[in-house]
Amino acid sequence: MTGLAGRQVTFGETDMADHLDRLGRAAPDLHACVDPVRARAWARTAGAEDFKDDFGADGAGGRGSSYIRAQARNLTARARGIHHLLSLVPARTDRRPAVVVDVLGGDGLVRRVADARGLTGLSVLTCDASPYMVRAAWAADCPALVQRADRLLMRDGSVDTVLVAYGSHHIAAEDRAELVHEAYRVLRPGGVLLLHDFLVGSPMETWFQDVVDPYSRTGHAFDHFTREELWGYLTKAGFESGEVTDMADPYVATAAAAREAELELGRYLLDMYGLAAIERRHAADAARHTVELARSIFRERRADGSVETFSAAYDPSDRTWTCTLPRTAVLAIGRKSP
User: Fold this and answer.
1) What's the mean pLDDT when you consider all of the chain?
2) Which residues on adjacent β-strands are paired with residue 243?
């Protein structure tokens, strides 16, 4: 489904029909939320869109293979932030699982973290614009669907939570307002939009600009968010209440020795962002070089003026070291009235 330079060249009605059939068999509750008319109409035009699939296979010009490898290597690297996001999903009054549409779901990381942490009462649909990512999600037993973030294929008022996280800056600035409007449309009364990213001027933006963009195989020239921008999207879309707040979302790696945990963090970042140029230049030292770059960038200023930096802690109960790189994300929460 992807071609040279990571561009999607075929995804049509037959592909969508196959996805929907598989979804209907694997997760009828999620299938019931999809509007088949919207799905078929989008699939008819998807192949003609100029779509650069940065998360396609590495061999097709993307960095999807290395991204998948990173999650397989360290499923818990971003689990703290994911757990916090899922804790904000409102429970249903009828005790049925809350339907969560994970709009930028990749290979199903959010659903797999929820399963690994024993989070109940959730039914997560992994969605992504990349067919390669959606195939990987299915391979990991995560019900999945190809769709664009600003062109949701769900029925009006059909889902409990729309989660847009871990890549929201990839959505073009001119499409972001439509994404939030679409989220409002598909949410049930009492539903919640969780829109997560990182602020302009944050250490995460510096990481993307100074490391990922020059050294990744796909580049990374995307605009991040401001608080005012996020609040404007919520109000213009019609959300009756909401807030824009900060949340801790660190990178974490664990190993038997402190140095090995630190290097695991470096290896995770290498694969996560497809830093092929660093691998070529530094070879066996690439993980060490990457984590040193990260340590110099991820310095988060607290409200009291102190600075949170890289840390390593030993847990004698299981004889492991945990290394942590602090990150502060911004989270826009939009609530639709009951």
Assistant:
1) 93
2) 333
